[in-house]
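Re: the 201-residue chain
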Amino acid sequence: MFTGIVTDLGEVVKVTPRANTLSRIEIGCGYDPASIALGASISCSGICLTVVEVAAQAGRCVFAVDAAAETLRVTNAGRWQPGVKLNLERALKAGDELGGHIVSGHVDGLAEVVSREDLTDQARFVLRAPKAISRFIAAKGSVALDGVSLTVNDVAGDDFSVHIIPHTLAVTTFGALKAGDQLNLEIDVMARYAARLMQSQ
């Protein structure tokens, strides 16, 4: 589990296609390599991935994860190449501050940036969710976009908007976002369970 509060901005170092439509992805970051155990979960732009290798390289930590076919199909990980920046978050520990909302790292689909408006003290993004997912998004509710916990401002059909403060623009990949970019979207787990309960009734 995660909270959607990004703790480091990582960078894809290497992508190696492997057998059975699997890709091994090496990611450089500022974490202490001694603090990352093999098998640990790290949210990489909203995708919960398992660490399979970790080492210190050229003065920074580099860890490797494997992305399976389903992950490559549902998320934007299939387009990751060396140099791509990723929002990173370590798994939540008992007693940690829950600063965002409960995020599982299980991506529901891709949201596309429709527009970006840079204002005096924030940026307003309008995004379009897949039709099958948009019904779970509500004004004042929570979503995770590329692993960042955000509050939804407005909803209009399949489109919704979020406002990003300067700090978030500076410490995440949102600063470089533009219209047409696709982000990993995870709906609020409470909305998912509420919909399931309604179906069962």
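Residues 19 and 131 are 33 Å apart (CA to CA).
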